[in-house]
């Protein structure tokens, strides 16, 4: 395991654990008003993003290609975590996660095209 990927996986795992713990600690506060319920969905979508990073780094370390399986697993875990707060958090988590997934996909496309152009020049 490369040290960069290993530390990235460790940071992702620790961040996932901290976010999930804080979300569960403040579950009643997040379910108290409409705005906090939306915030709870956004926090759950951050869980999706961190878990997707963790799974993706693990798969890349093992030499596997990351695909839709990682997205589905990360989304399922995030939706379950959102469901422990409030039912509306499930919907907002899904919507925020879709937006984050779109942005991550767009960002990875930009990074890949930059790395391709660097390799073609030399």
Describe this entry's structure for a reader.
The protein has 122 residues and is mainly alpha-helical. The protein has one domain. It has five helices and no strands. It is a multi-pass membrane protein. Belongs to the KRTCAP2 family. It is found in: Membrane. It comes from Salix dunnii.
Question: What fraction of the residues are assigned to beta strands by DSSP?
Answer: under 5%
What composes the largest sheet? none
Runs with pLDDT <50, length 5+?
none
How many distinct beta strands?
Answer: 0
**Which class of secondary structure composition applies to the elements?**
mainly alpha
Topology order in helix (H) and strand (E) letters: HHHHH
Features:
Dolichyl-diphosphooligosaccharide--protein glycosyltransferase subunit KCP2; membrane; transmembrane; 0% strand; KRTCAP2
What's the structural blueprint in terms of helices and strands?
Elements: H1 3-25, H2 27-30, H3 34-61, H4 68-83, H5 87-121
